């Protein structure tokens, strides 16, 4: 266990997965595509959390598990840690990553490299399409976080906030 | 040296997903009691698991001369072993190796989490590990 894969392969698989679910499988129903992508992320997060917690002792409370996600889990996945963790001590955590690795290949404005945007009607606001395209890509890491936390015993809901790219915030709400 | 040993894996929903008699002694009439003892020990494991952050909880319960040892993973899956030997290091190594095998089963995308482990390969490997460490 512990064979490695090139990062470009991971990028390619994720881009193709999002594009397949959005444009081919559920082209008229983006909510369903989003749910499927998130479910794939859920299973991946479930498996990854089991694998990365193997060597270390178990967690005593929720904060320990969230800190594990911010430090060890994130550095295994993205080679860096979460830059900022905020909480309201009532079950909501905000994980902020100032340079989210999987978004670095997506340009912020709709350029010709961005195939999805160029296929859209040119009269529709391009910023809206870029935002929707980016948010589709973020369902997968949201699912990964949710799967990892659920496996550690913390049922939660995870959403992503992309108000200022390339920084990306994940909001984790623990279900009471 | 002949030894009795019964090994089960219990998922986080308290459903046994794998059971095996891994002792080297011939199967005796009281073997059906082993599963019963292991299931009864689950309550004790539940209490004990929250008191410590270690994975390997040593002997959690005794029954006659048989001892129940438990290893809890981060996902709250319990690997429980009923045995009569006293080789603690061997048991800890056994648990760690089975944990690694279990993770490999989990990484299979077609494996539904919490369902029974039906792989004969897994079964063969667990029995080989038991012969080696117990």
From TrEMBL, chain A:
Query: What InterPro entries does this protein map onto?
Result: NO_sig/Golgi_transp_ligand-bd, TRAPP_component, TRAPPC6/Trs33
Tell me which GO cellular component terms the UniProt record holds.
cis-Golgi network; trans-Golgi network; TRAPP complex
- Domain of life of the source: Eukaryota
One matching Pfam family is TRAPP
Annotated TM spans: none
What processes does the entry annotate via GO biological process terms? endoplasmic reticulum to Golgi vesicle-mediated transport
Similarity comment: Belongs to the TRAPP small subunits family. BET3 subfamily.
PANTHER family from the UniProt entry = GEO08327P1, TRAFFICKING PROTEIN PARTICLE COMPLEX SUBUNIT 6B
- The protein, known as: Trafficking protein particle complex subunit 6b-like
Supply the gene name: LOC103702401
TrEMBL record, chain B:
Its GO biological process terms?
A: endoplasmic reticulum to Golgi vesicle-mediated transport
What name appears for this protein in its UniProt entry?
Trafficking protein particle complex subunit 2-like isoform X2
**One Pfam family from the UniProt entry?**
Sedlin_N
Q: What species does this protein belong to?
A: Phoenix dactylifera (Date palm)
Q: What domain of life does the native source organism fall in?
A: Eukaryota
Q: Which residues form the signal peptide?
A: none
Q: GO CC: one term?
A: cytoplasm
| InterPro entries attached to this UniProt entry | Longin-like_dom_sf (IPR011012), Sedlin (IPR006722)
* Gene3D superfamilies in alphabetical order: 3.30.450.70
